[in-house]
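Me: I'm a chemist; would you kindly supply a protein sequence with its structure tokens?

Assistant:
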Amino acid sequence: AGEAGEARATAAGDARRGAAAGPGGACAGCAHALVEHMATAAEQAERAASYAALQRLVDLHSVASRLVLLQALLRRCGHPKAGALLLHRLKQEHLDETRRRGGAAGAAEGAGAAE
């Protein structure tokens, strides 16, 4: 219940910021369709275009919402290669957030030491 509530709250925040819908809404359905197309299209150019569109769609969301969306897509993904790409993006998002938080903590510590 906690994760679902968090996802709904994040979705509402994203909708207010103009990201159309959060991880549980129409955006998730669109993202899933892009993953399916990316994994099954016969033409490499089609697969690449689907992947690029998915990346842009994920970028519309807040960091927390991206993590929830990527986790949901990964759970539903039945294609190992597409799953690997989703996992790579999820890992990158996590690393970026860790660095961002670490950089903010380091800056706060540096400001405290300067006083």
Summary: Helices lie at 2-16, 26-40, 44-59, 63-76, 80-114. Residues 7-23 have pLDDT under 50 and may be disordered. The first helix runs from residue 2 to 16. The chain has five helices and no strands.
